[in-house]
Amino acid sequence: MTLDRLPIGKTATIINVGGAGALRLRLLDMGIIPRTKVCIRKVAPMGDPMEIRLRGYELTIRMDDARKIEVESCGDGA
Amino acid sequence: MTFALVGNQNSGKTTLFNSLTGSNQHVGNFPGVTVDQKTGRIRGTRDCYVVDLPGIYSIRPYSGEEIVTRDFILNEKPDGIINIVDATNIERNLYLTLQLLELHVPMVLALNMMDEVRGNGGTIDIKGLSKQLGIPVVPISAAKNEGITELTDTAVSAAKHRTYPAVIDFCPSSAVHRCIHAVSHLIEDHAQKLGIPARFAATKLIEGDDTFAEKMGLNQNELEMIEHSVIEMERESGLDRNAALADMRYSFIEGVCAKTVIKCSESKEHIRSVRIDNLLTHKYLALPMFLGIMLLVFWLTFGVIGSFLSNLLSAGIDWLTGTVDSGLTAYDINTVIHSLIIDGIFSGVGSVLSFIPIIVTLFFFLSILEDTGYMARVAFVMDKLLRKLGLSGRSFVPMLVGFGCSVPAVMSARTLSSERDRKMTIFLIPFMSCSAKIPIYAVFTAAFFSRNQALVMAGLYISGIVLAVAMSLLMKNTIFRGNPVPFVMELPNYRLPSLKSVALLIWEKARDFLQRAFTVIFVATLIIWFLRTFDIRLNVVTDSSKSLLAMIGQAIAPVFTPLGFGDWRAATSLVTGFTAKEAVVSTMGVLMGTSVSDLKNALGTLFTPLTALSFLVFTLLYTPCVAAVTTIRKELGSRLMTVGIIVLQCMIAWIAAFAVYQAGRLFI
User: Fold this and answer.
1) CA separation (Å) from B656 to B9, B437, B493, B617, B618?
2) Rounded Cα gap, residues B80 and B448, in angstroms
3) With an 8 Å Cβ cutoff, are A47 and B381 in contact?
4) Which residues, listed in sequence order, are joined to residue A11 by a DSSP beta bridge?
5) What is the DSSP pairing of strand A69-76 with strand A10-17?
6) pTM reported for the whole predicted model
7) How confident is the model at residue B173 (pLDDT cuts 50, 70, 90)?
8) Mean pLDDT, range B402-406, rounded to an integer
9) Which residues of A touch B (CB under 8 A)?
10) In the prediction, which pLDDT does A77 show?
11) Residue B430's Cα: distance from chain center in Å?
12) Nearest-CA neighbor of B579 among B328, B381, B347?
């Protein structure tokens, strides 16, 4: 499953970070790396981007970019 | 001694900088980029300076800010680094710390917001953290001014004794560990020659930084050996090179935090943030709340506070002008000098100074919105809309401010983190019809479209927006082609802004504007005064139609004939509009020989409804005023691009007005 498909409020473990170039490096730098847990907080009013929580802070990423992050669902809450 | 202040965005870096330096700050630009370089002397020291580097998350050579930081530390070789870390978000903040440690410069960790951590029942073992990282750690609270003296002392002592970070090996024995060590060993000589730490060079080469490989002068054989050990590492760890390095750093940090940090379950500040966000980024309420907040800011700025201060200021200027005027008359001073002082200097400076209250008030509100963390939410809410134009949500507010005044709008584009977005936003701001054009619209619509006044005005604003959209789509596919900077943005907890930071920012913006006001803008108004006062033989004119300005108007008037208003008076008014847009109406009044209040009756002799509409479209779009142009020049850092904007806006204005006039003639 990819991160954009994860329902709001659910937590998942990152398996693989795709994408390329500056975007991918930025994702990695922000701590989006395999084995990290992320939780979906909400989606912006116009349906994009989304707000996620990881490593104790909130981050916003676009749906297109979330589609490049592979996750494995692991239950509720952060 | 010089210190570099480095840290993540939202870590309280600016607040710490202000606490460290007080008001002895000097703002400049880093060479080649429009990134602020603030330097200040540290309070209580005689010769210790601190340079505020841009807020970054990593030292990668991808954004201007990151390159500036890296180059500053490698080339300017500061005596020490003060790395500010947000203790409430320590894991991600330490990621940058580990990269900074590789640079092998004496370093101190300023652990900010410790009061918040303690207030929520958390603790951080300062001694343990210091031991794990191999550098001194000082707990501080920049907002409350706690721990600043201790931080200064520690930093100065580390720099004086050249205490280098004790630990720079954060890889537990693993594939990555072996790879880094193999590569560092291989390139040690090259790195030493360049004066770059071998470990830092090794990680850069593993990351695949080609410019670095070139700079180090590695031969084909060495490059192949590096590539070989990297591939070996990728195979063993099951991650690609970049993910493996990020994983190594975060794993090390997790280990450090597990030993030294006791987190509380959920902080009060975070719970409060989530509550505020439930409202401000609510599915249905977010947009109305945002519009409400912006309307309030506009109303307060341009209506209540701004206009109050403006009136106060103009009353002061009027009083001074009156006093000087009667003084000059009483002493029977030469009329030309009299006119120079009153009509040139006083009215010129006066019209420029009238911007100050608006800039000050607007920046007061904007910096509060920025510092509380609301701007990040605006970007979150608006991103989808702006992305279609090739921008990100961050550009929304500067463009919105453009409807008030282009000067603060262009200034506020400074908060955009990407240079490309900043430039594109500045290009689009002139399309947002500024409030100084309202008097022009008001007079013309009252004279020609009294029944549809609101409709015509709204039409003008919308035309500006539509053209901006068209323009951005064009730019996206031409000069600003290429990938926009990734929109991966932190949503920090809401925080109360520090009044000191807000005040310093306002002061900085006002001072910056005043400097330009008394140089470029002042000269421009004097030139217009000169052209208006003298004729071609340098005699003082009595009939305004004989002045040099009128001659220029007559010379360029034919340009406007295809637009329907080839009269020299219209052309002359447009020329004076360059100093300030309000001047269009007042000049026209002077040239028509009527007062501004009677102008709408007199305009009937010069314009038809159709040519009036064409004229309005032209004023909507043509060159920004001189105050805006100098601001654009400063923020873009390029004279060529600024001239480009002026020429482009005039061309677009001409074409649009031509289209309106010619299309109108077909129907009428």
Assistant:
1) 42, 17, 46, 7, 7
2) 67
3) no
4) A39
5) antiparallel
6) 0.86
7) low
8) 88
9) 17, 21-31, 33-36, 42, 44-49, 51, 55-62, 65
10) 47
11) 16
12) B347
